[in-house]
Amino acid sequence: MPKALPQEIKEKARRMVMNGTTRKDVALMLGITHSSVYIWTRDIKLPRIKTTPKQDSIMKILLERGYFIPEKHSEVDTLRLLKERHGIKIASVKASHVAFVKGRETDALKAFLRRKRIHYISSHKLAQLERAFGIKNTEAVRENLKENNVKLTDFIK
Question: Which domain of life, per UniProt (predicted)?
Answer without folding.
Answer: Archaea
